[in-house]
Amino acid sequence: LDRWRTAVRRAAAAVSRAGVLRDGEIASIKFAMTRGDELDHAGPTGWVLGFAGADPSAVRAAGVAAVVLDRGYRHDVMHTAPWLLQGAKSLAYAVNQAALREAARRGADDVVFVSADGFVLEGPRSTLIARIDDTLVTPPPEFGVLPGTTQGDVFAGLADRRTAIVPVTREDLRRADALWLCSSTRGAVPVRALDGAALAIDHELTARMNAVLDARED
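The structure corresponding to this sequence follows.
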């Protein structure tokens, strides 16, 4: 852990020193770990990449258009087929990138995955928050979704709102009066349209969510 902390701090400092960041942009850090080359057995290797993330203010205000795509497995796959490693961010992003290309082909910006049996999962690069019956809800990690640290910070920071981690069906998604896609690089981004149907953007609550997230660095 000490080596990782040192590498992350060096990468962040290097991005800042290079003058890469413009006003509004944020430094993003990605790190990866591999068990090593299967041929020389040199042992685990890790690396850290620091880069400038785009200013999220415009997309936070305008929102994104998303489409619903079938992820291709049941919601209980973590229990019925744990060897598929759903919920582990450990394999290639090929499916996620292909899904985003399909969204672009349909004229949309992003994706909401659902399971083959109709339960909402997550986005290719985000966690979903839906407002249903005046409660902010997100799907449980038991459905094979990656636990969202950004979503968790939003829920923790909105103590005056009802929040819940509960199963969300595709029908629930249709009756939600607001949706957000949360990620570490963009914060809470509202969904302005889902499968071509317009959704209202709650600008006030979106601003509150992102104020909570942006304050984490203070």
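Strands lie at 26-34, 45-53, 64-70, 110-114, 127-132, 135-138, 162-165, 178-183, 187-194, 197-198.
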